[in-house]
Amino acid sequence: MAEILPVEPFDLIIFGGTGDLSMRKLLPALFNRDRDQQFSPDSRIVAVSRAELDPDAFLKQVLDSLKEHNAYQKGDAEVWKRFAKRLLYVRLDGTKPDGWEPIADLFTQQAEKIRVFYLATSPGIYGPICQMLAQKGLVNRHGRVVLEKPIGHDLVSAEQINLEVGRVFQEDQVYRIDHYLGKESVQNLITLRFGNSLFEPLWRSGYIDHVQITVAESIGVGSRGDYYDKMGALRDMVQNHILQMLCLVAMEPPISLDQDIIRGEKIKVLRALRPIGVDEVKAKTVIGQYTEGVIGGSAVPGYESELKRKSPTETFVAIKAEIDNWRWANVPFYLRTGKRLPDRYSEIVIQFSPVKHSIFKPHMGELLPNTLNIRLQPNDGVTLSMMTKEPGPGGLRIRSMPLNLTFADAFERYYNNAYERLLMEVVRGNPALFMRRDEVETAWSWIDQIIGAWQATNTKPQPYMAGSWGPSRSALLMDRDHRAWHESQGW
Ligand code: BG6
To answer: Most C-beta atoms within 10 A of its C-beta, which of 9, 153, 165, 309?
Structure first.
């Protein structure tokens, strides 16, 4: 088993430090890394927010949250003692000039230490916070800023944020996080494609029939309604997570793992995405909004009841995307995501072309195309389905069978919190797993055009019952091409 290497001493300042992301994801991820002793004794974590909280109340809030999110486990008392010692709470409005002394003091003690500023706030204040950091002289040459998604809500707002942040930080100091890039299976895509000679010759038009990327969630919008209602499924999930996965599936083989080499290949894919304009938007996209229904045996409310108002926002989107280059000519990428679908299930399916000439008779069984299923969740892993002879006498019978690798079974050590990996990459100074400015902006251009086409054609979300796989038009989108969505196979 590979050794877990400690990271250099750092100070991590989290703006929005008592918010949902910090409590639910960031602090549990850091706690887990501290358990593995990856941090030096002088590494510190500072939570910044405007809330009035005394140090004890803050520590209690963190501990409760670590317990609630299963980071704190039995026997972790010593780890907690160590972790609590490095935690500090600072009450501060990051957009205002007052109250920065505790942070400045912290830095003067160790001027050359790595400084990570994590902006887990609303993107509208990323620029002003960076400006204050500069004004207060807090950005040293080891300074890094992490920007949570969404980077804006369209191309213009994203450009503005990137411009303002860019006035303070160089591009190689900016880490635009997409937590899907930290997921085990998404990272494994690179190893799968470029660590095996098996797939590369077949990874192209002529051998692959089509690709499907599904990110299904059974949860609704819950307490995030106000944020979500401004975004919708296309901006919330496709602009970032799904397009990033599409890039990793579709990019050309990079010459190395170097950060800008991989990102350079990804941007070529984004630039080759065929625009979807007014003439095609109805044929190539489907949007929906969930109504009340049943999931896992429990009744759940519809989107508008959760939101407590009427809304035109889509909670489901399916798209037929095409990539205009030599490798992917005539190979559609079907993308789909939604809330209140039957399961939490995310998967990339590479469906290979059908056998060119069948020698089998229909009574022997159905000849199904090979598929490579890359599962993100649950049960991260990879399954390759192959046609096999059913053993036994009584004539030849054929059947599709899976070759299955589930990471949690196959590997002794296994992390499923993507933030653990990504936070350590920030401290190590490796931006390869983060989105570069041009990637974010190019992705927005493609998305903006779809939104513009929906508006121009007055396309409205179709209702779908919570617990179903989205509006019926989603199945039709595939059916028209004589294809079907792969629903969760329950591997
Ligand atoms: C976030 C979206 O980026 O990803 C959420 O804003 C979504 O709406 C979440 O629920 C899904 O992440 P995961 O890791 O649970 O699949």
So the answer is: 165
CA dihedral 117, 15, 160, 144 (to 10 degrees): 0
* The token pair that represents 275 in the structure block: 């625009």
> Does residue 217 have its Cβ closer than 6 Å to ligand 1?
yes
Site to substitute for ligand 1 among 241, 243, 422, most atoms within 8 A of C-beta: 241
Residue of the CA atom closest to atom 15 of ligand 1: 217
* Atom number, ligand 1, closest to the C-alpha of residue 241: 3
Using the predicted structure, report yes or no on whether residue 488 has a pLDDT greater than 60: no
- Are 285 and 357 in a shared domain? yes
Count other C-beta atoms under 10 Å from residue 261's C-beta: 13
CA distance readout (Å), 202 to 193, 206, 388, 437: 10, 8, 20, 32
Q: Are residues 208 and 267 in the same domain?
A: yes
Q: Which atom of ligand 1 is nearest to the CA of 346?
A: 16
Query: How many angstroms does the Cα of residue 340 sit away from the middle of ligand 1?
Result: 13
Q: Is 486 a catalytic residue?
A: no
Q: Which domain holds residue 22?
A: 10-148
Does any ligand 1 atom lie closer than 6 A to the CB of residue 420? Answer: no
Number of domains in the chain: 2
**131 and 185 in a common domain:** no
Q: How confident is the model at residue 140 (pLDDT cuts 50, 70, 90)?
A: confident
Q: Are 120 and 200 contained in the same domain?
A: no
* Domain match, 24 and 130 both: yes
Asked if residue 488 is part of any domain, the answer here is no
Contact 193, 315 (CB under 8 A): no
Chain segment 61-83, per-residue pLDDT in tens = 999 999 998 899 999 999 999 99
What is the CATH number for 224? 3.30.360.10
The DSSP result for 55-97, as a single string, is HHHHHHHHHHHHHHTT-S-TT-HHHHHHHHHHEEEEE--TTSS
Q: Please identify, by atom number, the ligand 1 atom nearest to the C-alpha of residue 231.
A: 6
Domain of 82, CATH number, reads 3.40.50.720
Q: How far apart are CA 73 and CA 167, in angstroms?
A: 43
> pLDDT tens digits, residue range 22-31?
999 999 999 9
- Give the active site residue among 69, 241, 363, 486: 241
- Same domain for 402 and 256: yes
Instruction: Kindly state whether residues 340 and 474 are assigned to the same domain.
Output: yes
Does ligand 1 have an atom closer than 6 angstroms to the CB of 347? no
3 state DSSP class of 178: coil
